[in-house]
Amino acid sequence: MPQKEILLLAGTAKGLFILRDGGVGKWSIDGPHFAGLAVYAAFFDQRKGRNEMWAAPASWHFGAELRKSTDMGATWDNPDNRRIKMPAATKKSLENIWQIAPGADADSLYVGVAPAALFESHDRGDTWNLNKGLWSHPHRKKWNPGFGGLCLHTIVTDPKNANDIKIAISTGGVYQTVDGGQKWNVTNTGVKAYFMPNQYPEFGQCVHKIARHPRKKKTFFLQNHHGVYRSDDGATTWKEIEDGLPSNFGFGLTVSDAGSVFIVPLQADAQRFTCEGKLRVYRSRDEGKSWQPLTKGLPQKNAYEVILRDAVASTGNNIFFGTKNGKLFGSSNDGDSWKMIEGSLPEICCVKAYTI
Amino acid sequence: MSVTVHVSGHLKPFTKGEVEMELLGEFETVKDALASLWKSHPALRDRVLTETGEIRQHVNIFAGSDDVKRLKGLATKLNSHELHIFNAVSGG
Q1: Which among A213, A233, A349, B47 is least buried, having the fewest CB atoms inside 10 angstroms?
Q2: What is the pLDDT of residues A151-189, one digit of tens each?
Q3: Residue B91, C-beta contacts closer than 8 angstroms, at least 6 positions apart
């Protein structure tokens, strides 16, 4: 039986890097693809046995594109007519593409963009449409941009239920649909928005990332703009789980197959680098009741790193994260120890991990 | 009158490698000339203009030596046989 390989897609401020590990700890690296362009979103589609790689390079000059490769990145298509465009009726223009996610149906894909909107395709990405249910939500005009713009940056689908989609918007918070996207309900109960007069509003929270437990369908984790939370009721209400963390601020979050939760706390909103100059990943193996700092293989002196919202990823119990200083780290043992895979990439915007 | 459109090398992926294109016809405004350009080179349109039809923030269009953003934008009267499309000096 052939050994399984790990594929990493590392989107950076200057292009996409494709890394592969055949299981012996030696990584090959291929890139930069789209040299000079920022890649905040990437996805590798293995459904139905296909190997389709998606990436969203964004040019400061010419805008953001959604591009596809069917040969593992050797070549990329470049449609004359862009796939993702804001419809004329919206009177808006696309600013960036933040997320590419699979739907439950093997031919469905979703894309989250700025200005905050959801696009969907049900034909393997050939045609795309704006999700009108979300765009017409009465809250939309009251959402406010964060530092990264007003972005829909997280899409969590249920592989067994095409009607169940959860999203996160900065700043708007968590919304979800149970009817495939016609009606969207806001579900931020318990999540704090310290920067608003009412600190527990219905919406307006700056949620940085949400992720689902691999086996407990109703259990979710949330990294907020100050605050770490768990939901036991399908991302509807949230409880703080931040005891034992050096800071409740951070961006990225992932959950391994073992059910371990990984975050990288950052010092305070105004500083935004790793606490005390130590690069520590925090892991919880009891769904947030307690946290352990993971330091083996990570620099513990003068390490002032920033890890962005989509730059923490896992496949199986292999965990990866990338920093704005261009360091890419990996662990093959559920976080017990870490190795630096690359140390001088451009600013890492997203990391996506796949077992192939 | 015919108009020659010059584009920066960064746009070559969207012009099949051309950096100079000839537009034949009568064009009252910059917008009219560009409409003709989009027909012959459709991939340029999405890269030069936003969905709302504005010149992208970091793209500059010159009619002769005049920056049309400092005039009437796409509605600028075309009094030159030369159009230049450049990416602005920007980025990080």
Answers
A1: A233
A2: 999 999 999 999 999 999 999 999 999 999 999 999 999
A3: A36, A60, A61, B58
Q: B30 in a domain, yes or no?
A: yes
Check CB contact under 8 Å for B92 and A60. Answer: yes
Q: How many domains is chain B built from?
A: 1
In angstroms, the CA A309 to CA A208 distance is 6
Q: Please, are residues A57 and A39 in contact by the beta-carbon 8 Å criterion?
A: yes
Q: Tell which A residues from 28 to 47 touch B, by Cβ distance under 8 Å.
A: 36
Q: Which residues contact A267 (CB under 8 A, 6 or more apart)?
A: A246, A247, A249, A273, A274, A275, A276
Nearest by CB to residue B13, choosing from A78, A81, A93, is A78
Fold of A6-355: Methylamine Dehydrogenase; Chain H (2.130.10)
From CA A17, how far away is CA A36, in angstroms rounded? 12
Smallest CA-to-CA distance from A11 within A61, A67, A49 is with: A67
A80 touches chain B (CB under 8 A): yes
| Residue A351's pLDDT band (cuts 50, 70, 90) | very high
Residues in chain A, overall count: 356
Interchain CB contact of A89 with B (< 8 Å): no
| CATH code, B62 | 3.10.20.30
The radius of gyration computed from the CA coordinates of chain B, to the nearest angstrom, equals 12
ipTM of predicted complex: 0.91
The residue range of the domain holding B33 is 3-14+25-87
